[in-house]
Write a structure and sequence with these properties.
Blueprint lengths: L2 H7 L17 E4 L2 E4 L5 E2 L2 E2 L11 H23 L5 E12 L7 H16 L6 E7 L8 E9 L1
Parallel strand pairs: 5-6
Antiparallel strand pairs: 1-2, 2-7, 3-4, 5-7
């Protein structure tokens, strides 16, 4: 089954890439690699998770924010590759978690994105990952995510 068909089967809608917030590209292709810029948890044109983990949100809610971020990142990948069927391997994701001091559940937050990638891409969705706690993100977003994929 193609990845695009799998997305439909899962009932997912990959959004068009959000407009950049400043002077940068949403993503860039370098050879067979696509690097996305940081993606925020936008849903239907609005920032769905504003605030900090460990205060405003639980790790489970953060995982949902990370899932929205990966959906937006996939929109960037699709816009550059033409189709997600062109993806050979998800290489790496980096997840930034806007959190209070002492919050240590960044890996559980990042799992929201990691699990969705594996649902869509199977073994090709298994990737390396960093999950980092930070004290602020653009627009006070709860989570920001960037990814690298390799094309066929």
């Amino acid at each position: 089954m193609s990845y695009e068909a799998r997305i439909k089967e899962l009932g997912l809608i990959i959004p068009e890439p959000p407009a950049p917030l400043a002077s940068y590209l949403p993503g860039i292709q370098a050879g067979r690699l696509i690097f996305t810029s940081g993606q925020l948890p936008f849903e239907n044109g609005r920032l769905a998770f504003v605030g900090r983990l460990g205060g405003d949100y639980t790790a489970q809610e953060g995982a949902e924010a990370a899932r929205l971020c990966i959906m937006n990142a996939l929109g960037v990948v699709r816009s550059l590759a033409g189709s997600l069927d062109q993806v050979e391997q998800v290489v790496k994701i980096t997840v930034f978690v806007n959190c209070l001091a002492g919050f240590t559940e960044q890996p559980q937050v990042a799992n929201g994105a990691s699990k969705l990638l594996q649902e869509i891409f199977g073994e090709s969705g298994r990737h390396s990952r960093s999950a980092v706690g930070v004290n602020a993100l653009p627009l006070d977003a709860a989570v920001e995510l960037e990814m690298v994929v390799m094309l066929k």
